[in-house]
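Field: sequence (string)
Field: structure_tokens (string)

Example rows 1 and 2, in order.
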Amino acid sequence: MDIEKVYESSKELLNASGKEGSDTEPILETEEIGSTSVKNANEVLTKFRAIIAEYLQGDTVLDGLDDVTKGVLGSYSLAGYLDYAIPSGKEIVVTKLLQHCCFQLQDFLRVSDGICYAHEEATTAVVQLIQMQLLNLYPKYSTQGYEALYSCPPTIYISPLCIPSLANAVCKKLGFPSSCVKVMKMNGHDLKKMEKSLQEDLAAKRVPLMIIASCGSHHSGQVDNLVGVSQLSQRFNAWFHLEGHLISHLSLHDQPKKTLQVADSLHLDLRQLLGIPSLPYVTMYRHCEIALQRAAYLTPSHCSPFSVVPLWFALQNLDSTTISNRFRSAVELSRMLINRLVTIPNIQIMSHVPKTIKPSSSTELKDTLTEDLESVQLGEVVDSKGDEISEVRKIVEEIGDLPERNESPMEDDGVTNVRDDDAELCDNEKTKPEVLMDSIVPVVVFQYRPKAKEIGECPGNLLDDLNLWLVQVLERACEEIHMDIIDIDDSGYALRFSPYDCKSFPTVDNLQKFLENLDQQLEILNATVDHKKTLNKIIEVSGGELQLVELPGWAGLGGVRYLPAAWRSNNTEQLPDQGKEEINRINRELVAKLKETDSAFSLGEGRDGLSCVRFGMVVAITDVEALANLVRQTGLDLEASTLALETMAVMIRKGIEEAQAELQRETEEKLWQEGLLRHIPVVGSLVNYFSPPQKTSIKGRCLNLQNGRIEKSDVMIHSVPVEEASDALDNQEMPLVANEEINDAPHE
């Protein structure tokens, strides 16, 4: 089977997989291999569908894929074909394909000559670059291993904005102790702490090996001080590795010269940038000695065909104009959102904001970019550069591990060095780090934050609840714009937007619709926060009848609990169980009564486990005082009706007991009057035969509900002879006297 058939079969398989329940013909016919019969390919595909259907739950991930994506996914078949057809010459083919990719990326990103390395895991290239630096600075490392690092251990600095698992991966794969990897912030005043730490490393005879910074975190959208970090890497002779979204912006700026490098190595996540799944990561690094590249397995021949072939197909199908338009659209959408957010007083932008965009004076946003540029004295960095590099050399030369800098093959190759290029810049020309610092990151993170005095009067988790509510309503209102909720240290929950994370790349109209919905929801949030103060004042003057309840996870106006007069206390947790049951009962009845008037009321539960009335979001025209008074008055009415019923129940119970006592007393008197002999078995029958008893009657009792007194009624309770009573029971008939008793029973 030739290459065309393999590729077309793969695309046909993708097309068939994208159709639910499609009965396709077998893609590959059953063949005989030796004496073993190969199963029909359609049967195998059906089994595969059944396995993944348990996870997909009816969804089809292949719906909506374009031709480029299908071509990239189908290219994995060609990679397998390459690995099988020419196993001895596949390295040559892979090297040639990767060279084509490297030329395209260099020309597109306006980067000078370098080398590309494709890899599947995000941390693979960083670990291998560290190994290459170890072999360069520690010549005995290749023979002595970690013993060569004992007297002069290396140090690697990593920004917290980088890949979260990067520090652990470096320690795990290289066997370094945690003291060799330092995670430090690289912007603002923290850059001075990093500079101090580098100086302490030199004093302790430690070698700064690599500095890894971020130029646009995909998680938070923040940017490290690239100018200051670049200067520190030059000063301490450390390898400068860069990752982040702003690397793609190198293709959008024409001012920096192509020969100028932004860092020693760049990390590209083409899956996010190009929107094509299954693409590998690409790391571009400056030329080094070939022997070091091979020793660190960084040459193109060490790349897998399953990484290079899909990358080559993607770059061949996408021209530079299409990719640039995608990058430019992401930047313009982010710029449009930022320009709107900086005008909203109660919105704080947490991601990177270029100094060219001025926040409104009403916001509390601080321009961290200005602090970053002022935190490092670049003049001192440049002036002391030579002294610090000499110090690094001196430390390692004491143990004979570092060759003289003029003998380094990196300079013998005649390759232009980034540090030499930067020194030749004109004063009026920006360097690439400066250009990137002035760019917009296509990741915008912002947080709704009311005024400071309003926050002080609200519970501590109010900000998180408000932002969680905001992201939920925005997702429902505008499905085209995908919003995430992230947790930022010391700031709480914040909203995050990135055009690359949307299901389909959003348009300007989609974002405009999103901004209109955002304005509407912010009006509701502002009104709710403002009315919280009014509600708190009303509860304070309620005289203990109403109690404010903190509702975790509820962004509405809040919770209010009505307390009956008998169980009013500031500390409801110390109440007995009877009091808690009474509070829960009356508040449940209160919510049911209020729902008849307005469905906006709901039943809530506070941290103490007691029920309460829960208010939702409100608008500016909502009369909160009327709502609170409605809850209070309804609670008083329920309590009053409850007390009236309880009083009547007690009165009726007491009246029944008094009536029973009087009837019992009259019955005993009648017994003494008739004589005890009449009530003795056998004897009583003889006495009644010779002396029949007279028919007597006892007046019944009734309860006067107006005055609560027991009075005698006109209904007479007659005594019935035993024989008549027995005949009545046999005939299932009740005497007339019994019927009268039943009819007047509620009065007794």
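Row 2 begins here:
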Amino acid sequence: PTARRVSAMSTVGARLRIATALTGAGAMDYGLTQAGHEIVLQCEAEPAARDVLSARFQGVRRARELCEIESLAKNVDVLVISGMTREYDGSWRESWSKASCAGALKHALRLAAESRVPWLVIEARGRILERNADTNEAPLMHEFALELERLGYKWAHRTVAAAAFGVPDVSARVVIVASRIGDPRDVLLTEDAGPLHVERRTNADEHTFVFNRHPEHGLRVYADVCEGFHPEGRACVLTAAGGLMPFAIHDAERMQGLPPGWTMMTRPSLHGSQGAELAARWDALAVTYGCVPCSYWIGTRLADPYSVKYSGEGVPFDTAVPPSWPGAAYNIGHGRVSALCSPFVRTITQLPCLGNFLTTAFFEGGPLVSREVAVECARVMRMSGWEPPSQLAALETVDGGIKRDLSEEPAVRTPAIGSRPTSDAALNVTDVSAQGDAKLDNNSFVARTLPLIKTKSGNFIAETGEVKRMSGPELLAGDAKRPRMGTPPTGDPESGGTPGSANRMSFIAGIGLAHRRNNQLVWAKLPGHPFWPGMRVNEDKDFIPDDARAMAREGEVLIVFFGESSFGWVRNDQCLDFEEHYATKSRDPGRNKARFQAALKQANDELHIRETQAERDKLRKLAAQVSTAHKFPVREKRVALAQVKGCTCRACTTAPVAGTAAQRCIRSEAAEKATSGHVGAKLTIQGKGVIGKNILIFWPLDNASYPAKIVNYDPHELRHQVQYVQDDVQEFLSLWKEDVSLPEGETLGGNVPDADHAGADLLLGLMSAG
């Protein structure tokens, strides 16, 4: 078996078989699969994380505890274990706790000795390199390295900064690679950006703050970059513009490199995840603490570990356990050596900034922050040496609604940026998200109201009286009595509300678009800049602050630009239709190519959404115009039908429990919905006859339809398995309950001939009954 493994590992770009453990919701797994490898075994105990793994890695064998795995299969090439969320207290010789990092490392050694796996990859926090603070015992890395050397493994470790991969987090992440057959230095140490040279920020006086409650250190505040963001539902963001809002769950996923929505287990609703579902998503992220780009980098190096040989310099250890363990070291059989290696594997000129990374929009949906949490955020800012903005400072007084004397409260110090905490005490803050559906007074929330100020992008945020959003859709009574600045005073028949109301508009750079899908897509050119994709603002219906209107000149139109979160007044002759001039204007400009491509992608996505919606509306109109002679009659009463001949659905094959009414045939429900022209219902009653058809599935939260292909059919639940074209993700759906349409060129097929036998009998019965 060992010889066969060596042959497989020597193949350039090999697809390796990997077993992972303790990786939470699968950040490491996702990065490794993106590098072309296959996950064959997973181990995770946290229920919410297991649900995510089951949905994202279907068909993979999965254990709950490492102790359940006696040995690895002979074809496993790599064992990957994450210790990022493990406990680091206690002694190596005493700890076999399943929650400790030492226990996880011992299980890794046990499996490596039993199965002789060729490669071993461990990801851990920086504390693995530190001595035990209570007993001054050697670091866990020393004990682990001793056992690796005894088993005949060569090893190397390196401290890697997630900031090198574009994530605004500078916490230490230690990656350990051990191998029986290769040189681990070639995987970890060959790519090095050297000393970090960071350019000075042009807007150094503008900061974005994140308030994060760490389980060990209490509430902490970070400016511009995090130092170990701990996923939890009460985290807050204070933007450079002064808006305080909850930290969005999709941004927490992106902080780990995961795609937004990775932990979402149900179809998104208009308001996103709520209640228990949202709590489960936070729980899954809390036990993950991964970095997908870092895992992808490791995966690419493992796929071709011999392409680049390590030739760096090192300093041999003076003793087996140096006073301070180095950030990078190795032992390939000639003794332990400290490697001169930077934590940045890629060259960067600027540290990633929270203000540019976070996508949480000031005007877009989501809950508000409780006043008590806001007061705690203001206090933590003061203790860390920052002056809170006037909006937060006002809440610390009686006029702000919080009647408390902060001077009499016990001082709970929180660390300044880059320093260690002086107290582990946690702040007592009410968890608003845990209050369920209880009715809360609007006064207990912080209204996101701002003066008219200039943001870092050079654009304006509406002032206090113009746009306010409370816990409900209603506007403040005082504001509802007067028209919004820059908008017509009359309501819009399409939206059912005033064009200036915040809950109806889509805001970009402070400009409110009343009906985003109706704004013309254009190419617009500002002096000194290339043609850039954007949307033309409707000056009569859309919300435009007075300060923005004052910039206009005669013959100019207002454009909001994609990818820039900015706007500008452009001469009418420098504003061209997007589709008509796409061929000539979509070429890369001489500079800013990356920004241009990002903006172009957003514009193309917007165009695709509009075309999809237009096609769906067209199909609905055609369905409404079809003669009723070709439709099945609708039953007047929803009574349980007798068992349909040949039907294998759950209701028809399950005997009713004594004393309960018989379940209604699922197929009959779908058939009745098909009589109203529902496309998904018509596909459902055709059973396996529609496998291979292409469809469009509408997602309400994204407000877009995504193309998918029907690949399988479950006759028991009357569900079809669909595979999305964009990312190949598969899921089973009851199409008769979904908003489904057909792409251009695709047809439903005949009403009866294409249906399966049970469906044909049912349809004929319905037609004769009518």
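free_text_note (row 2): The mean pLDDT is 74.
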